[in-house]
């Protein structure tokens, strides 16, 4: 069983070769926070920007007397107005994500958790605030936040298929949804449309096992959901292949369409592929949603 410490270690190892994700802050009054990303304009902050001549409305305590002593005029220090972006993650923890077709492959859940937490590590290193959807963990910074995320993401839900939550998304922030997206499409549509209404941009990463993409079944086969709640037996599994692949293609097309409508980005990742490549894609997808 994956422990929070193991998950954190795996995510750290995956994120280590990559540069910190320096997420550009959007012009969002709702997400203003003293942070590390100066917007190169005067405002509330800790980082020095420039000296400027004192004006009538400036208080005497704001005058930099050391700088003023070198001139006939009084000067004040302008600080940078600083903004940190809020990013909300949803990583599917439903039973379907625990599937793997080969013991040499990670489960979909293990890959999704590692990618989600690796993204959080890069974002927090870049000065951003990261949290989880559904008000489980509000966006914050720091090592303690990463540890809490690792603990929450290590849990598994009893439902067969997960559904993303739009609750907890700040207006004009960003989000990342990681899932197999094989369940009911309606909750996914609703979450994305609600996010778009709030000006939230983001990325959808579909994680699939190679077997789910190829459907290499023939003859008598029993298909059963990971929770055991759904079961189907057939004597001619090969006859289902074309229908299954058509439905999978339709699902991908719908997710791509939803991403296009809402201004998000969509990609499919297989657990047999490089996790680093998937993280690089997420890096670029979130960066382009600033």
Layout of secondary structure:
Blueprint: H1 4-15, E1 38-42, E2 48-53, H2 65-68, E3 75-82, E4 86-91, H3 108-125, E5 129-132, E6 137-140, H4 143-153, E7 174-179, H5 185-197, E8 201-208, H6 210-214, E9 221-224, E10 231-234, H7 241-262, E11 265-270, H8 275-287
Parallel strand pairs: 4-5, 4-7, 7-8, 8-11
Antiparallel strand pairs: 1-3, 2-3, 5-6, 9-10
Helix pairs in contact: 1-3, 1-4, 3-4, 3-8, 5-7
If you had to describe this structure to a student in words, what would you say it looks like?
This protein is of the alpha/beta class and 290 residues long. It has helices at 4-15, 65-68, 108-125, 143-153, 185-197, 210-214, 241-262, 275-287, and strands spanning 38-42, 48-53, 75-82, 86-91, 129-132, 137-140, 174-179, 201-208, 221-224, 231-234, 265-270. The strands form three sheets. It has a six-stranded mixed β-sheet with strand order 6-5-4-7-8-11, sandwiched between helices. The chain has a three-stranded antiparallel β-sheet with strand order 1-3-2. A two-stranded antiparallel ribbon has the order 9-10. It is elongated and about 95 Å long. 36% of the residues are buried. The model is unreliable at 18-46 (pLDDT under 50).
Q: Would you report the number of β strands?
A: 11
Query: Which sequence of SSEs, written as H and E, runs from N to C?
Result: HEEHEEHEEHEHEHEEHEH
Query: Count the helices. How many?
Result: 8
Alpha-carbon distance between the two ends:
36 Å
Oligomer: single chain
| Silhouette | elongated
Could you estimate the helical fraction of the residues in percent?
A: 25-40%
Question: Which class of secondary structure composition applies to the elements?
Answer: alpha/beta
Major β-sheet strand ordering: 6-5-4-7-8-11
Which regions contain 5 or more consecutive residues with pLDDT less than 50? 18-46
What is the residue-mean pLDDT, rounded to a whole number?
A: 79
Largest sheet: 6 strands, mixed
